[in-house]
Design a protein that fits this description.
Length: 242
Amino acid sequence: MKRWRYDSANDVERTPLERLRQFPREPDMLVYGLRSLGALIIRALLRVYHRFEIIGHENLRTNRSLVIVANHCSHLDTLCLLAALPLRKLHRAFPAAASDYFFQSVPRLWAAAVLVNALPFARQARVRQSLTLCQEVLANAGTILIIFPEGTRSTTGEVGEFKSGIGALVAGQDVAVVPCFIDGTFHAWPKGRRMPRPRKVRLIVGAPRNYRTRPADKLDICAIAAQLRDAVNELRLVNASH
């Protein structure tokens, strides 16, 4: 969100946990190094353990800000989407993560802030403030925001309804919105299972969309959410053909 310039004086009086919880975070060379190393290890594990494959990779090749929307069945989903990005963009990519789940216990907080650079998103109260924070993030050129509009992991493997917040975020905004379908993560690491299983995982990346001409009224934001859900479901058909 800022130019890469480390100034430890900005958060020197904060405890390590406070520095991890704050957002936006100050650049930190140690965290950047750990995140990059973790990304290399995760990408290798995805390739070997899950035979990870990406279709439509060219749809992510842009220097503009992006909103990536995808179905959500597993903790693997975020790792797959981050693995599809160039390493040089890793510190400018922000997966929106439930603040009531990922930013409470220390292990989850460490994983969310250090490994995946998550943006804390309130699912219940203060949703409007969270959307405003997302818009502020996207105002910085080259930022990538990862959103799971279902709001939680599916327990059936089916794509649930998309919440209208995604429509409110992109309506009237000149930002590319990229729908994605992630296949195999439900069988590899479903909600409630402690450890992932060795199952094939595939990411299908759709063509970017833009909603800058759409008004941000209630009908339109709901329609945008429904259209993006349809776009993700259509990618399921692309996956079935491979």
